[in-house]
Amino acid sequence: MASANEEKVELGFNSVPDVTKPKKDWVLLSLRVVAFLATASATLVMAFNKQTKSLVVATIGSTPITVTLTAKFQHTPAFVFFVIANGIASLHNLVVIAVDVLEPQFDYRGLRLGLIATLDMMTMALASAGDGAATFMSELGKNGNSHARWDKICDKFGAYCNRGGAALIASFIGIILLLIVTVMSITKLLKLNRI
């Protein structure tokens, strides 16, 4: 009889499924890391974008009169908004990466997924607004506006415009990745709610 009870205990013990830790979503985490790198690089490139150039404005006799001009991102409110929006997107991605790595400590019974999906959408909207404003000002700086008599500046400050263009490209890559991450976050939230 003792052996029969032992077998039952063993059978009952073996029939309990193993509780394993849920797999981390490495695709989502790696996309978020690349989105962080893209938005952070866009922020840093635009924040340190500056070029100084001396231009001849007049000539008196044979003496040229020069003026030293500096182009900085702070001179354009759209570029300041671009830097702030991409900085916020970088910070958001960094915090979510930290929460994802420390997931067992911060679960909050499913509230975390809904909050992250909502913040992902807000971050993507903010970053795309900053990119739109900076793209408009970049177009104006590159081609000018003859109707409003705004001259182009990229023919005089070429390095400044090239670095600004590189920051825009990095930020647009970050927005595309943020869009993919947002869709994946919402899909993950919907799958959780169906169960």
Topology:
Layout: H1 2-14, H2 26-47, E1 50-60, E2 63-72, H3 77-101, H4 111-143, H5 158-194
Antiparallel strand pairs: 1-2
Q: Give the N-terminus to C-terminus distance in angstroms.
A: 43 Å
Main sheet: strands, sense, barrel: 2 strands, antiparallel
Mean pLDDT, to the nearest integer, reads 84
β-sheet strand percentage: 5-15%
What's the number of helices? 5
Structural class: mainly alpha
Trace the largest sheet across and list its strands. Answer: 1-2
Low-pLDDT segments, ≥5 res = 8-21
Summarize the structure in words:
Helix 4 packs antiparallel against helix 5. With 195 residues, the chain is mainly alpha-helical. The chain is built from five helices and two strands; from the N terminus they run ααββααα.
Provide a compact summary of the structure:
The protein has helices spanning 2-14, 26-47, 77-101, 111-143, 158-194, and strands at 50-60, 63-72.
Which features characterize this protein?
195 residues; mainly alpha; 5 helices; 2 strands; 11% strand; elongated
